Amino acid sequence: TDDENQHDEL
Amino acid sequence: MNIFRLCGDMSHLAAIIILLLKMWKTRSVAGISGKSQILFATVFTARYLDLFTSFISIYNTCMKVFFIGTVYFTIYLIYMKFKATYDSNHDSFRVEFLIVPVGGLAFLVNHEFAPLEIIWTFSIYLESVAILPQLFMISKTGEAETITSHYLFALGSYRALYLCNWIYRYYAEGFFDLIAVVAGVVQTILYCDFFYLYITKVMKGKKISLPA
């Protein structure tokens, strides 16, 4: 749920 | 999403499709390193665990599912369906020499000491060196089929395009992921030798063959 650790790349 | 990122992803997609078509049409996995494909399967599985924890976009989810699905299908073709054509004698790179140090490094150098984050970091580091068994195999046999060269060129271009994407994102969005960038630079450097051969030989209609 922590947005900071969301990786948006493949 | 920017043009570099999109081109990078399309290049990655093209690489996978080229490889599958080569194997399917020729009914052969000759010249393809099963070990590199197992490493890529490890990379995708580890990195895309976030399919279960976070949703980014339909595009993101579809690409992840496609990459995971196709890499396991590729492994099935190499080790089962077209096993007879698999050249295991030349696929002799010791992958433990990659997995162990990369695993250790992921523990030591990461953005956050949390399980999913360490696994993500592991996948980024492992991807940067996952092509080595394939390159080793080519150096051992001294040649690569032209279609295999196209595959490698597309696969190498993907991370090079991501480097452009990261430069763009740094200036446009202030986005900067040191781990991904350093690993991406390493990954791209490993292909440089191959890029040179591709441009000087394959683009002129010759196949890659190394002096014995």
What does this structure look like?
Chain B: It is found in: Endoplasmic reticulum membrane. The complex is a heterodimer of chains A (10) and B (212). The model of chain A has no long low-confidence stretch (mean pLDDT 72). Chain A contains no helices and no strands. Chain A is mostly loops and 10 residues long. With 212 residues, chain B is an all-alpha fold. Chain B has eight helices and two strands. The longest helix of chain B is centred in the last third of the chain and has 28 residues, at 146-173. The model of chain B has no long low-confidence stretch (mean pLDDT 97). Chains A and B meet through loops of A and α1, α3 and α5 of B.
What keywords describe this structure?
heterodimer, A: 10 residues, little secondary structure, 0% strand, elongated, B: 212 residues, mainly alpha, 71% helix
What are the SSEs and their pairings?
The complex is a heterodimer of chains A (10) and B (212).
Chain A: no helix or strand
Chain B: H1 3-26, H2 34-47, H3 58-81, H4 96-108, H5 115-129, H6 132-141, E1 143-144, H7 146-173, H8 178-200, E2 208-209
Q: Could you tell me how far the N terminus lies from the C terminus of chain A, measured between alpha carbons in angstroms?
A: 19 Å
**Radius of gyration of chain A over all CA atoms, rounded:** 7 Å
Q: Output the number of helix runs of chain B.
A: 8
**Residue share in helix of chain B:** over 70%
Number of helices of chain A: 0
Strand order of the largest sheet of chain B: 1-2
How many strand units of chain A? 0
What is the number of strand segments of chain B? 2
Which range does the strand content of chain A fall in? under 5%
- In terms of per-residue confidence, which ranges of chain B show pLDDT below 50 for 5 or more consecutive residues? none
Summed up:
The complex is a heterodimer of chains A (10) and B (212). With 10 residues, chain A is mostly loops.
